């Protein structure tokens, strides 16, 4: 069963002295089990994106290991990683006039030879992926004409067409209205694929994640279930904000109400 293990990662933006300690990682370790939805939370500039980039083979760690099923991803080819890890980022790719189905079809690239065309199986996977994100019928639309939320769902469909063993999401709900935030995270949860996601909205993280890791100043400072991690003390210490934590009356997960100062 697929599992991601990050062991004692260290990374810093070399040559960017003006960054001080921002974005660097120090002795960061975490684990994502098979089928587990793990959230990464922390303030802006705490190192969330830097950690994810090390995990999906974009930024090479200065120390430590990134293991997928006991294989060090930094000792494998980029193709090997692309066949197993799918990534959904905050930024949208330049689609250069591509249609929606062509963007989703890019998810099949790691599994094909250089000159291979789309097979019937590929087309079925593309259709299934679009259906999963509620965009069946959008195949012929130009990607560039879509709303931010629609683009984000197309990028998730591309990741699903990739048939990954591990899904990495960097702030996947940033461009979505509340309905599609809930739908997208609910879809990811139902996929039963090992998932590591940085999530800005702590109430969404509480509602959908099996476990959470808290990162602050490049270090993992807490981990556990949402109930274990999301305490008023931790939110005060890490985010510098007072909060009331209670239990959602319908679903039973922690609910955070931020306390604003008059």
Automatic annotation (TrEMBL):
What GO molecular-function term can you cite, just one? ATP binding
* UniProt domain ABC transporter: residue ranges: 4-242
Q: What highest taxon heads this organism's lineage?
A: Bacteria
Per its UniProt record, what Pfam families does this chain match? ABC_tran
List keywords of the entry alphabetically.
Answer: ATP-binding, Nucleotide-binding, Transport
Q: Which family does it belong to?
A: Belongs to the ABC transporter superfamily.
Please identify the protein, giving its name as recorded: ABC transporter ATP-binding protein
Could you tell me which CDD domains the record lists for this protein?
ABC_Iron-Siderophores_B12_Hemin (cd03214)
Which residues, if any, are the signal sequence?
Answer: none
- Stored InterPro entries: AAA+_ATPase, ABC_transporter-like_ATP-bd, ABC_transporter-like_CS, P-loop_NTPase
Question: Which Gene3D superfamilies is this protein grouped with?
Answer: P-loop containing nucleotide triphosphate hydrolases
